[in-house]
Specification:
- By secondary structure, the chain is α+β, with helices and mostly antiparallel strands.
- The chain has a single domain, classed as Nuclear Transport Factor 2, Chain: A (Roll), CATH 3.10.450.50.
- The protein has helices spanning 14-39, 43-47, 68-78, 82-85; strands spanning 57-60, 63-66, 87-99, 102-112, 119-130, 133-141.
- A six-stranded mixed sheet has the order 2-1-6-5-4-3, with helices on one face.
- Strand 3 and strand 4 form a beta hairpin.
- The longest helix is centred in the N-terminal third of the chain and has 26 residues, at 14-39.
- The chain is globular, with a radius of gyration of 16 Å.
- It comes from Hymenobacter lapidarius.
- This is DUF4440 domain-containing protein.
- Residues 27-136 form the DUF4440 domain.
Length: 144
């Protein structure tokens, strides 16, 4: 992910603009932290960016999965070793705030896997701020 431009707003909307900038920065931090964990082969660390709730929903090629633990278990089954996990990269991120504590993120993912073959696709995340932290509450990911 490239550098970010930062504008400081003044006037009546300055508080909202600053809050929005902080939200976007917080969301980017979650995604950067997840990428780093994945690239270390740390699926539990990657999962820290997800809402630790039975209400979490992940939609992939096999349909919806509900709950944090089931999502973790599915990741562990689908990516049993570092070679299968590869190196994750997100690009083309578009973050849209829906409310002060909710956002959607659209982007592209790519796994560089020299021995297992590269895979890539797109995703749509719904993120919520829970307990002051941004987390993924819903993840719809596809592969090409």
């Amino acid at each position: 992910m490239g550098g970010q431009a930062c504008a400081v707003a003044t006037g009546p909307g300055a508080g909202a603009a600053a809050r929005d900038q902080a939200a976007v920065a917080g969301i980017r931090t979650v995604l950067t932290t997840q990428t780093a964990a994945w690239n270390r082969g740390d699926i539990p660390g990657f999962m820290q960016g997800y809402w630790k709730s039975d209400s979490l929903v992940f939609i992939g090629r096999r349909g919806p999965t509900y709950g944090w633990q089931q999502t973790l278990d599915n990741y562990r089954k689908g990516y049993p070793d570092a070679a299968t996990m590869g190196q994750l990269d997100f690009s083309g991120l578009r973050i849209s705030l829906l409310a002060p504590n909710a956002a959607q993120v659209v982007g592209r993912w790519h796994l560089a896997r020299p021995s297992a073959g590269d895979v890539q696709g797109h995703f749509l995340l719904v993120m919520r701020q829970v307990g002051g932290q941004w987390v993924v509450a819903a993840d719809h990911t596809n592969s090409e």
